[in-house]
Write a structure and sequence with these properties.
Radius of gyration of chain B: 22 Å
Oligomer: heterodimer
CATH architecture of the largest domain in chain A: 3-Layer(aba) Sandwich
Number of domains of chain B: 2
Structural class of chain B: alpha/beta
Bound molecules: flavin-adenine dinucleotide, adenosine monophosphate
CATH superfamily of the largest domain in chain B: HUPs
Largest sheet of chain A: 9 strands, mixed
Helix content of chain B: 25-40%
CATH superfamily of the largest domain in chain A: HUPs
CATH class of the largest domain in chain B: Alpha Beta
Shape of chain A: globular
Largest sheet of chain B: 7 strands, parallel
Order of helices and strands of chain A: EEEEEHEHHEHEHEEEEHEHEEH
Number of strands of chain B: 18
């Protein structure tokens, strides 16, 4: 069978941004990207791409990547194309800047209807900016299809999808009929790195760009939550550094210190 | 939905018993309910609920709604979503509290989308705004680098609560309350996901989440072998070994050892972090530890901003001496 796949990918602030460079504009209630640092494709979404590519290799199919945002860095958001996606749809609108998960899921659902049918939607388990883990579940509810989360393995056969879902003490093998939404986790394995050929092919593909108007939706009415405040929590710096004559001695002193403090 | 009243805690039942996280929800739920002068209730859903409703009352729930149905067996999330939606439409709560556990992290968003209401995820603090009477939900974002305060205009206001962010309520068997059966209809067509098999890969004897002492290693350990030394140290305390995500991704340890935002949340008395930089996503899983001790060769590492005691240097030299001295002190 040829599987029509959609991968939802979000452009996010690099989560490896050191804490010292992480800044908030409290007035505007948003994170300020560090100067000169590019955003990245959400790590779990690259893993969703990897899962899609594996299915494409084994079962055959097509991969359409969809991303919602206010603005995109071309070299960043085209990475899934370079990895091997067939097409990229950018849902770009100033109104999407403050969209919450409810609005994003609704925008994605509208776009998915517009691109035509699908068999499988692959998402990351969560976006590393707001750490919500809810857009895929919402999308599944809006579309009325099954949702399987936190998969470390995804296989498609005979009109159904089978996943290995990570659990605290092992994993669950779950199965659902297509169409379905699946979210993936890092246990699935590293996403592949684009090849030079992939990068060249990606450069030739032109993303489709749609705004809220093209989708016939008004994002203002879609949000269900409001952000009242965004701040960086105070951190007490009270670490007591233990120093000995050499490193081994510091280790011994640390143990004695913990004993004195009745911690051990 | 119309304005509802009351705080409804969604109970999690395992083997006929209420999970400890439900006790945490009933504790914060009680404070919210008293604050707004509303009732605190709970709902338990399952195929065989044992003594769960009695336990919820002991934790402080006034009324416990009991939804029993053959399709509500453990792991049948689709059925739980359908049932919970019906419970909320009937009971019309103002606030719904769900633990952000494996099940809750699916249940919360799906419920909110079905009801067309807002959802605030991963709450670590909850209060009620004096003037608007709306909930103010404080939650970590950007991996824990920042905190957001979220409000929701519609009711019910659905909140998923981070496990171990709140103490559990005191259990008092003399508390009185009422258990009321509630009818739910679950069409078999609503159940789309089928569990084929559950594979248990117990990391033997490593009770990470219950341990009083956790010795955790990160990328700085450089391989699987050094984790044996950590295990040796952990053993002296009767504790457990944990790891950062890169250590698990590298295959040095199974992912069930991972501590953090997308791993396990631990709250031991003592957390010893070796070769761990202290990224916010890692700290999300261990910042509730009473005392954090760090061994790291980079004096600028973030872990030293989170730790109570630290040694700057190479763990290869520090750890054996530390372990030996601990052994002497404890013998
Ligand atoms: C959405 C999301 C979720 C995530 N979830 C998690 C999670 O659940 N858990 C988690 O851990 N991470 C998680 N991460 C990853 C996290 O951002 C960090 O990348 C990770 O925690 C870093 O792991 P580390 O400290 O082991 O490695 P590093 O950051 O590489 O740190 C290694 C440390 O070892 C020190 N070191 C090196 N050699 C020595 C030596 N010889 N002696 C002493 N010290 C030495 C170095 O100075 C360094 O500080 C997540 C990331 C994202 C984006
Ligand atoms: N703006 C967006 N554009 C495309 N996909 C998104 C967007 N936001 C979330 N997603 C998808 O939903 C997953 C979970 O995101 P979240 O619910 O925001 O944590 C992500 O890993 C993506 O696959």
């Amino acid at each position: 069978m040829s599987v029509r796949m959609i991968v939802c990918a979000k452009q996010v602030l690099d989560p490896e941004t050191p804490l010292s460079a992480f800044k908030i504009d409290r007035e505007a209630k948003r994170a300020v990207p560090p100067a000169g640092a590019d955003p990245v494709v959400n790590g779990f979404d690259e893993i969703a791409m990897e899962a899609a590519l594996k299915i494409k290799e084994s079962a055959g199919g097509t991969i359409t990547v969809i991303s919602v945002g206010r603005s995109f860095v071309t070299d960043v958001i085209t990475k899934p194309l370079a990895m091997g996606a067939d097409e990229l749809v950018l849902l770009q609108d100033d109104a999407f800047e403050t969209a919450d998960s409810f609005a994003i899921a609704s925008v994605l659902a509208a776009a998915i209807a517009k691109v035509g049918g699908f068999d499988l939607i692959l998402c990351g388990r969560q976006a590393s900016d707001w750490d919500n883990a809810q857009v895929p579940l919402g999308l599944a509810e809006l579309l009325g299809v099954a949702c399987l989360t936190i998969a470390k393995k995804v296989e498609v056969a005979d009109g159904s999808v089978r996943v290995h879902k990570v659990a605290a003490d092992g994993y669950e093998v779950l199965e659902a009929p297509l169409p379905a939404v699946v979210t993936v986790t890092n246990e699935l394995g590293e996403p592949r790195i684009p090849t030079i050929k992939g990068l060249m092919e990606a450069a030739r593909k032109k993303p489709t760009v749609w705004g809220a108007g093209d989708l016939g939706i008004d994002p203002a009415g879609l949000a269900r939550t409001e952000l009242a405040d965004l701040f960086i929590p105070e951190r007490q710096k009270r670490c007591e550094l233990i120093e000995g004559e050499d490193e081994a001695d510091s280790g011994r002193k640390l143990a004695r210190k913990l004993r004195e403090a009745k911690i051990i | 939905m119309a304005d509802g009243t009351g705080v409804l805690v969604v109970g999690e039942v395992k083997d006929g018993r209420l999970s400890p996280t439900t006790g945490e929800l009933l504790n914060v739920g009680r404070k919210l309910a008293d604050g707004v002068g509303q009732s605190l209730g709970a709902v338990v859903m399952g195929a065989d609920l044992g003594n769960a409703s009695r336990e919820a009352i002991a934790y402080g729930a006034g009324t416990v709604l009991v939804a029993e149905h053959a399709l509500l067996g453990e792991g049948h999330l689709d059925a739980h979503v359908v049932a919970l939606e019906q419970v909320c439409r009937q009971a019309k709560p103002n606030i719904v509290l769900i633990a952000r556990t494996e099940a809750g992290r699916e249940l919360g968003p799906r419920l909110a989308f079905r009801l067309g209401v807002g959802l605030a995820q991963d709450a670590v603090a909850l209060s009620v705004d004096d003037s608007s009477r709306q909930l103010r939900v404080t939650r970590p974002v950007y991996g824990g680098n920042a905190m957001a305060v979220v409000t929701m205009a519609r009711t019910p206001q659905v909140v998923t609560v981070r496990p171990k962010a709140f103490e559990a309520a005191e259990k008092d068997e003399s508390r009185r309350g009422e258990a009321a059966q509630i009818r739910v209809e679950i069409p078999s067509s609503a159940v789309k996901v089928r569990m084929v098999e559950k594979v248990v890969e117990q990391s033997t004897g490593n009770n990470l989440e219950g341990a009083r002492v956790v010795v955790a290693g990160g990328r700085g350990l450089g391989g699987a072998e050094p984790f044996r030394q950590l295990a040796g140290l952990a053993q002296l305390f009767g504790g457990a070994v944990g790891a950062s995500r890169p250590a698990c991704d590298a295959g040095w340890l199974e992912h069930s050892y991972q501590v953090g935002l997308t791993g396990k949340i631990v709250t031991p008395d003592l957390y010893i972090a070796v070769g761990v930089s202290g990224a916010s996503q890692h700290m999300a899983g261990c910042s509730g530890a009473k005392v954090i001790v760090a061994i790291n060769n980079d004096p600028e590492a973030n872990i030293f901003k989170e730790a109570r005691y630290g040694v700057v240097g190479d763990w290869k030299k520090i750890l054996p001496a530390f372990t030996e001295t601990v052994r002497e002190l404890l013998s």
